Amino acid sequence: MSAARSDASRAAVSAPAGPAGPADLPFEKALEELEGIVQRLEQGNVPLDESVAIYERGEALKRHCETLLQRAEARIQRITLGADGRAAGTAPLDVA
């Protein structure tokens, strides 16, 4: 077996399990996987090539989680009250 083939086999075995892209994951699963990646990298016992690969996966997961949070924030609304104190409708929540 050639060295390149051996490296590819090792990478396939040691690559993190999960779907090909983070876009398929719900927020909780993406965050859980991201936390696992952070723990592995913090331990410092991951080979360099694998560290780079899981770091890249972590970046993709981070972007996915940020997108999902932004979407959730956009959906949150506050109840507006009329002059009589009753609910009159909703308006976007101003979180700034």
TrEMBL record:
<protein>
    <recommendedName>
        <fullName>Exodeoxyribonuclease 7 small subunit</fullName>
        <ecNumber>3.1.11.6</ecNumber>
    </recommendedName>
</protein>
<keyword id="KW-0378">Hydrolase</keyword>
<dbReference type="Pfam" id="PF02609">
    <property type="entry name" value="Exonuc_VII_S"/>
</dbReference>
<comment type="function">
    <text>Bidirectionally degrades single-stranded DNA into large acid-insoluble oligonucleotides, which are then degraded further into small acid-soluble oligonucleotides.</text>
</comment>
<comment type="subunit">
    <text>Heterooligomer composed of large and small subunits.</text>
</comment>
<dbReference type="InterPro" id="IPR037004">
    <property type="entry name" value="Exonuc_VII_ssu_sf"/>
</dbReference>
<dbReference type="GO" id="GO:0008855">
    <property type="term" value="F:exodeoxyribonuclease VII activity"/>
</dbReference>
<keyword id="KW-0963">Cytoplasm</keyword>
<comment type="similarity">
    <text>Belongs to the XseB family.</text>
</comment>
<feature type="region of interest" description="Disordered">
    <location>
        <begin position="1"/>
        <end position="24"/>
    </location>
</feature>
<keyword id="KW-0540">Nuclease</keyword>
<dbReference type="InterPro" id="IPR003761">
    <property type="entry name" value="Exonuc_VII_S"/>
</dbReference>
<dbReference type="GO" id="GO:0006308">
    <property type="term" value="P:DNA catabolic process"/>
</dbReference>
<keyword id="KW-0269">Exonuclease</keyword>
<dbReference type="GO" id="GO:0005829">
    <property type="term" value="C:cytosol"/>
</dbReference>
<dbReference type="GO" id="GO:0009318">
    <property type="term" value="C:exodeoxyribonuclease VII complex"/>
</dbReference>
